Fold each of these.
Amino acid sequence: MLEVSALQVNYGRVAALSGVDLTINDGEIVTVLGANGAGKSTLLRAILGAEPARAGGIAFDGVDITRMPAHARIARGIVLVPEGRRILISLSVEENLLLGAHMRTDTRAVRAEIDAIYQRFSNLAERRHMLASCLSGGEQQMLAIGRAMLAKPRLMMLDEPSLGLSPLFVSKLFDLIRELNRGGLSVLLVEQNTGKALAVAHRATVLELGKVVMAGDPKALAADPRLQQAYLGDGAPAPVLSA
Ligand code: ATP
């Protein structure tokens, strides 16, 4: 479904991604792990079209989208739930959801999908006419995912969705990711919660300083001493993989 090949992205003269390859097959959850500054967010933003590729390519459903503007990629079924969620706190919960559907004309279907989101998340239903600033961090994350779903994506990219959430919401979040995936959605997940990300993913890739240093079966990666030392220990993630 998605084929990223030899992707290079620079910020000025600094290379944030240096020749990254990544494949996502239809119906897969793929997780991208790595320490701070490894280039994970840059990769997601480049796939969305928010950062230009300096070299390399991105194909979606066999179509080269490397130079396509972000809105055209979204129309093809790619969405990003960015780090920090970026919901509009001065708009109501419902207005935030409607924003996710702004490119759609099937208003009846949109209404039904919004009602389904309310059924699933009663906290959002109860606060539908309140400002989104009234929501807890976990509720805001659910709203951000709900809003992204209203764009009818086939590939959802999530950047650090569990950041700052209570353990209860973290487990609700991973349940939701599994459920959306069972419904046919492909997922590209960037997470600091390495254990949970490897548990939910079909495949995993580890980035370090803009390069892929490990890739493959999440169970094998979880058992790899280098990954355990770098990301699954008690301490903060440390870029030691290529040392
Ligand atoms: P984090 O977990 O901290 O979000 P990350 O793996 O997502 O890290 P990126 O945010 O993609 O990493 O950053 C990759 C590199 O690019 C880092 O060296 C970072 O400092 C740099 N970088 C990111 N955004 C910009 C920007 N807008 N301008 C300049 N440099 C940037």
Amino acid sequence: MRFDVITLFPELFAPFLVSGVTRRAYETRQVDVRLWNPRDFAEGNYKRVDDRPFGGGPGMVMMPVPLAKCLAAIKAERADPAPVVLFSPVGDRLDHAGVERWSAGQGAVLVCGRYEGIDQRFIDRHVDVQVSLGDFVLSGGEIAAMALLDAVARLQPGVLGDEDSHQFDSFNPALDGLLDCPHYTRPEEWEGLGAPAELLSGHHARIERWRRDRRLEITARRRPDLIDRARAQGRLTPADEALLAKLA
Ligand code: SAH
């Protein structure tokens, strides 16, 4: 899959693309990330990409012309009709289901806004979908783009060290969309605190039951909506329901 990222700050992506477990996905181009700077498509000596907002007010607005030229150059290179995504507080909140959809697709063009945002006419003409990271405001779309790329890359086959270990993460349908259980490692005792006996038991079924119970417990406490969803989807067993009844 290929992601073309339109950003005024391509240098922000350099360390991101060579670090951590996902670097393999980028380096092998399993997730092919190409960076484009609208400034390279801007005109005049000053290579202007932003201007003052019509109607006045603070800040600057990204001009539509360099963005459209940049997008045209990308589309000329891409054979597929890639969707154009704009990161914006206006967009739909990114979640696991959304990440799964992106990770099963051919990629996209990711547009990172800066300043007060981008000229609405570019959005109306070219943007297919707007994606938000949450109900807060970032200085630019780059962190949102990296969040999407990272979440997508780790779902690709073979990217995580342990094959498909993402299936054991929070929200994954493989674990019925529950939150993850707590994790422990050495030392067995730390500052007077032991690790749960079940995890040290070496008994596979006991370990799995313990983990399942903790997932249910933490999800019931923190995100009861996810319990409701798992129940509605028929994913809770009688043993699960018995544990949940005890918590109530
Ligand atoms: N004036 C805008 C915020 C602009 S912030 C508003 O009040 O809605 C500059 C850029 O950061 C935006 O164009 C967008 O690309 C990015 N951005 C800010 N908050 C974001 C969020 N919650 N999710 C995704 N992108 C965001």
Amino acid sequence: MAIPSVDYIWQDGELVGWDQAQVHVLTHALHYASGAFEGIRCYSTPSGPAVFRLVEHMQRFLDSAKMLYMELPYSLDELCDAVKATVAANKLQQCYIRPLVFRGYGSMGVDPLDAPVQCIIAVWPWDTYLGEEALAQGVDVGISSWRQRSANAFPPQIKATASYLNSGLAHIEAVHHGYNEAILLNEDGKVCEGSGENIFILKGGAVITPPVSDGVLAGITRDSIITLAREAGYEVREESLVRSQLYSADECFMTGTAAEVVPVRSCDGIKIGTGKAGAVALELQGLYFACVHGENPAHGGWLAQL
Ligand code: PMP
């Protein structure tokens, strides 16, 4: 996906021109995947652009950095302010936001601790991740032959850059097989998540999603959907799933900041429910979009105005 450039990127405490935000080829993270990132969205609302669940994202960013032994010289508040300042400087109404913390230039070798910790925040206009049609009609997914990174290899609960080698291999394989997205199972055969999305099914009227302890990212969209589904009167359970439960589900959908709320209409060529975007998936998608666009006052607290 090409990146539409904007004017400024926040780099190590200051806004610099898009083309000036550069690193050395011996940057540690390029060689040893010593980094972590976030994916956040800013949406237009009646009171101007607002960042969805900014504090939760930046807290997860700090948690990821901590688990990778990287100490950021910025507080949670400073990071949130930096995100808002970057969106504002680029005069964007809606955008994707990519904070990245990484080990920079200065030392080589597996031990990252002598390489400096660097941080950037980039923003760019980014429409739907899997496409407008995907949001309305649903996508086709396939179970990956690659297993989800093990919690005992590197933690799936954090957004380490290294995790996305695993996600990328699964996604490429799925696309080669003619699917839109991959679903990864863990080593025990439990359903985990998509390459960049959490997964839910609807069965017997209940909304079910795998627990974080099965090795999934604690998605912030996942958390929002759990809340919205409960408010809409659905029973929501965090429960392990095996692949056959995807095939026999009444509905299935995926959630993520980039992907938003995407119905899944088939898995491994087997129709899920009617083989069309499910009614409950679309209902929850509508509730989600209302929140991100500031149309649900009960969840105004999820939005950080610039
Ligand atoms: N799982 C993975 C592997 C992801 O990369 C993402 C995207 N961050 C998600 C789930 C969804 O997380 P969130 O809703 O916080 O974007």
Amino acid sequence: MTDAPRRPPLMPLDDALQRLLAQAVPLGMTEQVDTFDADGRVLAQDVVSALHVPPHDNSSMDGYAVRAADVAQAGVELPVTQRIAAGQSGQPLAPGSAARIFTGAPLPAGADAVVMQEDTEALEGGARVRFTAVPAPGQWVRAAGEDVTRGAVVLQKGERLAPAGMGLAAGIGLAQLCVAARPRVALFSTGDELVMPGAVPPEQMAPGAIYNSNRFFLRALLQRLGCDVTDLGIVPDNRAATLAALQSAAEAHDLILTSGGVSVGEEDHIKPAVEQLGSLDLWQIAMKPGKPFAYGHVNRATGGQAHFMGLPGNPVSSFVTFLLLVRPFVLKLMGATRLDVPAMTLRADFDLPRPDKRREFLRARRNAQGGLDVFANQSSGVLTSAHWADGLIDHPAGATIARGDAVRFIPLAELLS
Ligand code: AMP
Ligand code: MG
């Protein structure tokens, strides 16, 4: 046995997340947006309905509105005294009569059921109708308020809007919604090896140079979350440039997000720069990929602080730490109430015989048999794994997987929304 140099233990992911969320005090700024533009935004107020939806009892079929008691047996005939199409309103229905009615039209007062036209025969050119089926009271009637009742909280403060919620808000007459303002996020990539696509063609890339891929997915991920992103591009690997970039980014932003430069090498300048300009509150998490993640604050010359989150440079590490740590943090800044990751239990259709000391997030994909396959190369530099995957397997530290085992699977779809 050799004595390994003692290092502080890595922080468990759940502890790190708890600490981060404790720091993510909602920003509290709100704005009114057009309901059309509210997709993905977080509601800043409860949305209460000022009316019933539907507003009136109405027909869910094309047919005839009747008093069910008037059609007690098949073969009954009634006079047709009115015609009511969607958008119209009829007259009270006299006993012993029927109203021709169409889907969505309000039921006339007195009627309590609709007989669909397939269960009728029109007589005398539509002046009378014979019923071939007997309606139960309430048949084919959509009751007023069956979707939404007046005074009901339809959407809750802290909810993140999605298309169905936008439709619901519109359905109660709201053309605008009060939502959390977009968090202002400054993004930069570090690394002297980085080249922007388009700047140099692939065949002319210098030895050691690579294209900057993190910048593209990180910007897109932030935008999907509803952030107002200032992309500061690539910052070189030296202390002065790193300090200058952090200092100016802190001024007009709520969060500074960086990629690369947070490991332990001499070319990793982010960590000491953040310590110099503010504080580094958290560094290194017991997760794979993503160990070098860092969190802290950068002081503003004008007072106050910006949050700082440093993601590892390896693309898959950057991607996974964004989804598991940055995403809930930013959602909380916006006042979102649902921060957890939706997970499900699925069957592993592969073996993972070697345990790891860290909790692992394996890039995996559901197969047609309802089980999970993993991408063969789980290296944190292989971004193809993240593109191939439709989810992450949350695999506990020290455990192995045998074919057929139940594992915890986090679908990417919701994490990417
Ligand atoms: P670092 O965390 O800076 O030590 O970087 C770790 C690895 O990720 C290195 O191989 C870097 O070249 C690579 N890397 C860093 N930043 C990026 C980036 N923006 N796009 C693609 N690869 C990167
Ligand atoms: Mg680097």
